[in-house]
Amino acid sequence: MKRPSVAHSRPNPVPATEANLGDRVPSHPRHTMSRLHHRNIWLLDAAGALVSVGLLAGVLPALQPWIGMPTPVLYGLALWAAGCVMYDAAVWTWADLDAPLPLRGIMLANTGYCAATPVLIAIHWDALTPLGRVYFVAEIPVIMGLVSLEWWVYRRRFRS
Predict the structure, then answer these.
(1) 71-94 and 41-54 are packed helices; what angle lies between their axes, rounded to 10 degrees?
(2) Which comes out higher in pLDDT, residue 20 or 157?
(3) Is residue 26 part of a domain?
(4) Residue 128: inside a domain, yes or no?
(5) Spatial CB neighbours of 57, under 8 Å, sequence gap ≥ 6
(6) CA-CA distance, 153 to 40, in Å (whole number)?
(7) Range of 79's domain?
(8) Is residue 69 part of a domain?
(9) Is 15 left (phi over 0), alpha (psi -120 to 50) or beta?
(10) Over the stretch 62-76, which tens digit does the pLDDT of each residue have?
(11) Which of 136, 17, 20, 16 is nearest to 70 (CA)?
(12) Whether the predicted model's global pTM rises above the 0.70 cut
């Protein structure tokens, strides 16, 4: 008697689609973005600003000889990031999150930070080490990525 092959004894797999997955949507960036609630952008922005404060006020001043950016400039950038944290917290706590003005404000603050950073890089170019240059240049696309996410939320929420 012949045994059936393994391929014939298994049912044909059905490709995963939203129809047969129900609430379990695959982890695809398109699905992740569509599930991002407009109120959570404040928490994401505050978390990023807190990381910046920690790096600019705690880690980078300790590494100043290897970074090259003067410590007062690092503290000034940390103050800017701390202002963003306080703004995010104030908006999250007291503001109308269904109004467009607060979101435009944080987009402006983050874009301003990204505009100030190249100016500071240019002013302190000779003092910056290669590691410092890489850090401050790499910081800009990360923050601008957040701004583009905020713009996406803004367009989806307030311009639809």
Answers:
(1) 160
(2) 157
(3) no
(4) yes
(5) 74, 75, 78, 82
(6) 10
(7) 37-158
(8) yes
(9) beta
(10) 999 999 999 999 999
(11) 136
(12) yes
